[in-house]
Amino acid sequence: MSTLAGKAVDRPPVCFYELNGFDENPHDPDPFNIYNHPDWAPLIQLTAEHSDRIVLRPATIKFDGPEIPPELTSEVIDKNHRTISNRAVIQAGNRTLVRRTRRDAEVNTLWTLEHWLKSVEDAEAYLTLPLPEMLGEPDTAAVLATEAALGDTGIVMIDTPDPLCRAAELFSMEDFTIIALTEPDLFRRLLDRFAAILYPRVEAVAKSLPGHLWRIYGPEYATPPYLPPNLFRDYVTAYDTSLVDIIHRSGGYARLHSHGRIKDVLPFIAATGCDGLDPIEPVPQGDVELAWVRREYGHQLVLFGNIESSELSLLEPTAFRARIRQALRDGTEGQGRGFVLMPSAIPYSRELPTRALENYTIMIEEATGRN
Fold first, then answer.
1. What span, in angstroms and rounded, lies between the C-alpha atoms of 291 and 329?
2. Which of 25, 65, 219, 329 is a Cys-bridge partner for 236, taking CB atoms 3.0 to 4.6 Å apart?
3. Hey, what long-range contacts does 362-366 have (CB within 8 A, 24 or more apart)?
4. In terms of domains, do 298 and 327 share one?
5. Is the entire prediction scored with pTM above 0.85?
């Protein structure tokens, strides 16, 4: 919290991103729980005992109205020992919208095989659906219970998509980029719809849980090479500034999440007024050096990164230790608000890559001086 506030600290925090040593349960026998593989137990223990944990929790409302009226939806779930398949349908006017997803037991991710919207006509039909109502009060129980359990070993970060994320994920990536480029008025109507849903929810939760760190995810959909910087300004800055303002009014801190090439859109990221940025990926996954971001934007932004998840898995330990030292040096030299050493993502397979545990340990050693 001192780092977020721009105060002096004895060392930069070291966080393993979504891996927090709190939510991962190695004792749950569910075949879709990758963390019950023996590889994970020592890493979960390392995370819980030695990392500065940031535990993600969604911004939720008690008794919230359904996103889509139940009478317009249907769903079929097929689950066996290794795969969960889902087919969901929305009847929007005279159009039938279909989404198909799959979850595999060996990989901790959800694959979208077919997206809801596939054309301009689908988007127009989706826009005719009624907006959901916010029926209840913020549900603070999960956040407060997590904070009590964490004590002084970490903090809770409240998680929210932005309007761009909600709109873009309705499409496949190719359909999204084409429609966002060629149908800007239609796409802004989608953004306006999701802004109308998200803003009051974020405001209600922020008032009930003041002073927290928030993560806003979705801006990466509009980074190059997917969309040009002027559309990042129109689709991210124009909407996320309001989210940041809402969070600030409650005394909270707003961190924008954006993978990939961010150099050309950094002015528009900073223009939102946000307090932090992650994961600031190194070249070639990203297109900007951490030291440059620190010089140019470190007065405003706490920088979270800049270790690539593939480096954690693939680099031999001597080379990885050198990368950690470089990131610590680049993230802390000169004047700046703060730096948090963090990878861009975590492993998502049941069996950990061979070098992962050793390299995670090196992150702790270098950041904390623990050997």
1. 8
2. 219
3. 362/317, 362/320, 362/321, 362/324, 363/14, 363/16, 363/307, 363/324, 364/14, 364/46, 364/50, 364/51, 366/321, 366/324, 366/325, 366/328, 366/341
4. yes
5. yes
Note down the domain range covering 101: 69-117
Give the pair of three-digit tokens for residue 292: 């440059």
Report the domain count for the chain.
2
Contacts of 284 (CB under 8 A, 6+ apart): none
**Where residue 371 falls among pLDDT bands split at 50, 70, 90?**
low
Do 109 and 246 belong to one domain?
no
Report pLDDT for 81: 86
What are the structure tokens assigned to 93, written together? Answer: 């006017």
Asked if residue 169 has pLDDT above 90, the reply is yes
The answer as to whether 123 is a domain residue is no
Cis peptide before 12 (omega within 30 of 0): no
- Note whether 303 and 344 are within 8 A (CB): no
For the segment 266-271, the average pLDDT, to the nearest whole number, is 98
- Domain identity same for 56 and 178: yes
Supply φ then ψ for residue 369, to 5 degrees: 80, 5
| 253 occurs within a structural domain | yes
Strands 213-217, 253-257: pairing kind:
parallel
Q: Do the domain assignments include residue 127? A: no
- Residues 195 and 242 occupy one common structural domain: yes
Position 135 pLDDT exceeds 90: no
State whether 106 and 182 are in the same domain. Answer: no
d(CA 13, CA 340) in angstroms, rounded, equals 5
